[in-house]
Amino acid sequence: MKFAIAFALLASAVSAAPHIVQLEMRDDCVGKRFAVFAIDNSNTVDKQDPDNVRYEVPRKVFEKMSPEADKGAVLIGSWNEGNRVAAPLGPVNNLRWDTPAPGRGDVKADELVVAATTHIKNNVPEEFKDHTAIILLTDGFTVTDGGPTSEVNNAFGVKIARAIHDAAYEGIRVHWGHLNAQHDRRDVSFYNTASRDSGGFFSEINNGGEIAGFVDQVFKKGLTNKDEECRAKPQPEPSKQPETSQQPEPSKTPEPTKEPEPSKSPEPTKEPVPTSSCPAPVVSTVTEKVTETVKETVTAPAPTATGNVCFAPCDAPGAKPLTNVKIEL
After folding, report:
1. Which domains are delineated in the chain?
2. What are 60-81's pLDDT values in tens digits?
């Protein structure tokens, strides 16, 4: 019963949550990270970001960071208050800051970057210098109070590029979120190059719907130098299982030796039929005549192999009848 109640309470809490926070997946290689936001609150940026989108970006970034390991801070630059620390470096899930009133004058973006770099150097141990990042949110304009608006890709822009370069020298990546809701035609290549040279990401943020895309690209690029280093680190290959030694194939049982077939006895040599040297086949006649004239029994030796015994009719020329002769074969 207690389990059912606890499960019901958990389900109701989840359903009541406004959204589900999806933390960034990373391994232990990255360790601690420190992200400091430098937010422009000048007179010109108020026109380029009338919905205060720039103050929602830090929340989205901090939500994707580790609440146990990572820390963040928020600095806001304005003409009347200078570059103040709205939320000092601390755990990302405990940071709170206010949304100030629109500024009246200009904000020197180079000094805002320098202030963020100083805050990191004063609060982050040297061993974590490559675990740090600055996210600059500005419209890329500067204005003298009451004077003309000028673009950053001039002498003032050179100062910003130098400030970003100095931050990169300290191992800090600088990401630039370019606020440009009015879609002014400007050459952004100058500070685009500066931020990318530090290892950071540059993109326009024209409305609230583009926040998620910017944040995703920052993490895809690598929030800090350490992120990219760990991403490029080759993963150890899984240990291969030793191949099982192949068992030799069982020897085939030799086929039984066939018994030699008994050699056939040679057929007895047939006695050659002696060729008759008698002048004519007179067997029937001889038999008849002999039967009639035999009156005595005479034993005669068997004919030799070379001898021939011939019978002829008694009335043949030169024949002499034998009296009382009996021939046994």
Report:
1. 25-232 (3.40.50.410), 281-302+309-329 (no CATH)
2. 999 999 998 999 999 999 888 8
